[in-house]
Write a structure and sequence with these properties.
315 residues; single chain; Arginase, Chain A; binds manganese (II) ion
């Protein structure tokens, strides 16, 4: 008879044990850790359908089959990187201010310990404190932002400066990112005013709408994304960049988005960039069907982890 080392983890069958991201050890001991997966189960910044607070747990559940060799990127991430599940940030449901402070402090501590962060949201408001923590350590960042929405809305929801509609407007205003190294991909759907798409562009941001992508083709978009990214870069992936047919479980769905295959191609297209951190947000399990969205999110997180492994390996 053989006994496993613990009651959860990769030594057990995928369906057994207590769920952690990719069945990695759950620990806050970051000695020797390369990547910490951090959940941010907060949806108090949501403007329409809430429920993204349940995202981290469901993405973890959808991730248990992912551990092996990434054939597309030719890397086995867990052979290259020491990855742990750090658990979740202490969020305060009725207080976006306290939650943002906690995210910035806790993620800042993880970064100070030398680990790279892969954050699982939560709604997109959590990206602002994540960017604050990263920029404090690394300076203004390059950013790839996959999203149906620009998240630089000119209207402040109910006069509140912080929500899931404004993190990148605040990030530009606060100098957390370099607008000339910031790319938005997947924009579509109606906005309140034309300025909602224009505001970022007027500041030098490259924005690719779905119409742009249709006209240019995916390889050209990938090439232009990469050209814009010089130096340390952060990826923020709003799952609603994918079409609702492929990601129904999200708070503000917009038709006419990317397929799952195209999302994989876009993320894999970032191979070799200096990826210093990332988040995957807006997975809203109450609106999901058959875990379609959570499975896509878990796989995209695996691709992001693979990008970090490629970077570490120097490939
Ligand atoms: Mn967003
Ligand atoms: Mn969005």
């Amino acid at each position: 008879m053989t006994a496993p080392e613990s009651g959860f983890g990769a030594e057990l069958q995928p369906f057994a044990g207590i769920t952690s991201f990719m069945r990695r050890p759950v620990t806050r001991d970051l000695a020797g850790v390369d990547v910490a997966v951090v959940g941010v189960p907060f949806d108090g910044g949501t403007s329409y359908r809430s429920g993204a607070r349940h995202g981290p747990r469901r993405i973890r559940e959808a991730s248990v089959m992912l551990w092996g060799y990434n054939n597309a990127l030719a890397v086995k991430p867990l052979d290259v990187l020491q990855v742990v599940d750090y658990g979740d940030v202490n969020v305060i449901p009725p207080s976006i201010a306290e939650t943002m402070a906690n995210v910035e402090a806790e993620v800042g501590a993880v970064l100070a310990a030398g680990a790279t962060v892969l954050a699982l949201g939560g709604d997109h408001s959590v990206s602002l404190p994540l960017l604050r923590a990263h920029a404090r350590k690394l300076g203004p960042l390059g950013v790839v932002h996959f999203d149906a929405h620009p998240d630089t809305w000119h209207r402040e929801f109910d006069a509140q400066p912080y929500s899931h509609g404004t993190p990148f407007r605040r990030a530009i205003e606060e100098g957390l990112l370099d607008p000339s190294r910031y790319v938005q991909v997947g924009l579509r759907g109606p906005t309140e005013e034309a300025v909602d798409w224009q505001w970022a562009r007027e500041r030098g941001v490259r924005a690719f709408t779905m119409d742009d992508v249709a006209e240019l083709g995916l390889p050209a978009v990938v090439r232009m994304m990469r050209e814009a990214l010089r130096g340390p870069s952060y990826v923020s992936l709003d799952i609603d960049a994918a079409d609702p047919a492929f990601a129904p479980g999200t708070g503000t769905p917009e038709v006419g988005g990317f397929s799952s295959k195209e999302m994989l191609q876009l993320v894999r297209g970032l191979r070799g960039i200096d990826l210093v951190g990332c988040d995957l947000v807006e997975v809203c399990p109450p609106y999901d069907h058959g875990d379609i969205t959570a499975i896509l999110a878990a796989n995209l997180a695996f691709e992001l982890l693979s990008l970090m492994a490629v970077r570490r390996r120097g490939g």
